[in-house]
Design a protein that fits this description.
By secondary structure, the protein is mainly beta. The protein contains one helix and ten strands. The strands form three sheets. A four-stranded antiparallel beta sheet has the order 2-10-5-8, with no helix packed on it. It has a four-stranded antiparallel beta sheet with strand order 3-9-6-7. The protein has a two-stranded parallel sheet with strand order 1-4. The relative contact order is 0.36.
Length: about 100
Protein backbone atom coordinates (compact mmCIF):
# COMPACT_ATOMS: atom_id res chain seq x y z
CA UNK A 1 0.00 0.00 0.00
CA UNK A 2 1.37 3.38 -0.91
CA UNK A 3 0.16 6.75 0.18
CA UNK A 4 1.30 10.23 0.86
CA UNK A 5 1.13 12.66 3.68
CA UNK A 6 -0.66 15.89 2.84
CA UNK A 7 1.53 18.88 3.69
CA UNK A 8 -1.60 20.94 4.44
CA UNK A 9 -3.12 18.68 7.09
CA UNK A 10 -2.17 17.14 10.41
CA UNK A 11 -1.58 13.40 10.24
CA UNK A 12 0.31 10.89 12.31
CA UNK A 13 0.87 7.17 12.52
CA UNK A 14 0.82 5.21 15.79
CA UNK A 15 2.55 1.84 15.52
CA UNK A 16 3.27 -1.14 17.74
CA UNK A 17 5.11 -4.35 16.92
CA UNK A 18 3.35 -7.69 16.68
CA UNK A 19 6.24 -9.73 18.06
CA UNK A 20 9.03 -8.02 20.04
CA UNK A 21 12.40 -9.00 18.60
CA UNK A 22 11.04 -9.13 15.05
CA UNK A 23 11.37 -5.77 13.33
CA UNK A 24 8.57 -4.53 11.12
CA UNK A 25 8.76 -2.22 8.12
CA UNK A 26 6.61 0.91 8.24
CA UNK A 27 4.06 1.16 5.43
CA UNK A 28 5.03 3.41 2.53
CA UNK A 29 3.91 7.04 2.83
CA UNK A 30 5.61 9.59 0.59
CA UNK A 31 7.16 12.53 2.42
CA UNK A 32 6.69 15.86 0.60
CA UNK A 33 9.73 18.05 -0.08
CA UNK A 34 10.53 20.41 2.78
CA UNK A 35 9.22 18.07 5.48
CA UNK A 36 10.97 15.62 7.77
CA UNK A 37 9.73 12.60 9.69
CA UNK A 38 9.66 12.74 13.50
CA UNK A 39 9.74 9.44 15.39
CA UNK A 40 8.58 9.63 19.01
CA UNK A 41 8.37 7.00 21.72
CA UNK A 42 5.20 7.79 23.69
CA UNK A 43 5.83 8.99 27.24
CA UNK A 44 3.48 6.29 28.55
CA UNK A 45 5.72 3.56 27.09
CA UNK A 46 7.42 1.33 29.65
CA UNK A 47 10.43 0.13 27.63
CA UNK A 48 12.62 1.00 24.64
CA UNK A 49 11.80 1.26 20.95
CA UNK A 50 14.36 0.67 18.20
CA UNK A 51 14.61 1.69 14.56
CA UNK A 52 17.03 1.42 11.64
CA UNK A 53 17.10 1.22 7.85
CA UNK A 54 16.99 -2.61 7.77
CA UNK A 55 15.15 -5.24 9.80
CA UNK A 56 18.41 -6.89 10.90
CA UNK A 57 19.81 -3.62 12.24
CA UNK A 58 16.55 -2.69 13.98
CA UNK A 59 16.56 -6.04 15.78
CA UNK A 60 20.13 -6.08 17.03
CA UNK A 61 22.55 -4.13 14.91
CA UNK A 62 23.45 -0.48 14.44
CA UNK A 63 20.10 0.89 15.59
CA UNK A 64 18.75 3.99 17.24
CA UNK A 65 17.20 3.48 20.68
CA UNK A 66 14.28 5.65 21.78
CA UNK A 67 13.44 5.71 25.47
CA UNK A 68 9.91 6.74 26.53
CA UNK A 69 9.29 10.39 25.62
CA UNK A 70 12.32 10.68 23.32
CA UNK A 71 12.10 11.63 19.64
CA UNK A 72 14.33 12.00 16.62
CA UNK A 73 13.93 13.60 13.17
CA UNK A 74 14.79 11.97 9.85
CA UNK A 75 15.04 13.45 6.36
CA UNK A 76 13.77 10.64 4.17
CA UNK A 77 11.49 10.43 1.13
CA UNK A 78 9.25 7.57 2.33
CA UNK A 79 8.32 6.00 5.64
CA UNK A 80 8.98 2.51 4.26
CA UNK A 81 12.68 3.20 4.80
CA UNK A 82 12.03 2.73 8.54
CA UNK A 83 12.08 -0.62 10.33
CA UNK A 84 11.02 -0.61 13.98
CA UNK A 85 11.18 -3.01 16.90
CA UNK A 86 10.36 -2.80 20.60
CA UNK A 87 10.96 -4.54 23.91
CA UNK A 88 7.22 -5.26 24.19
CA UNK A 89 4.13 -5.22 22.00
CA UNK A 90 2.24 -2.53 23.93
CA UNK A 91 4.66 0.39 23.55
CA UNK A 92 3.87 2.79 20.71
CA UNK A 93 5.97 4.58 18.12
CA UNK A 94 4.39 7.78 16.78
CA UNK A 95 5.38 9.11 13.36
CA UNK A 96 4.61 12.74 12.50
CA UNK A 97 5.87 15.30 10.03
CA UNK A 98 7.34 18.73 10.58
CA UNK A 99 8.89 21.40 8.43
CA UNK A 100 12.55 20.61 7.83
CA UNK A 101 14.92 22.91 9.69
Amino acid sequence: MSGGFNANSFQFLALTVTAPGTAQQVAAHTIPDGLEVVLTARRANTQNLYFAETAAKAQSGARKVLIPGQSVSLRIDSTNRIYHDADNSTDTLEITLQKAA
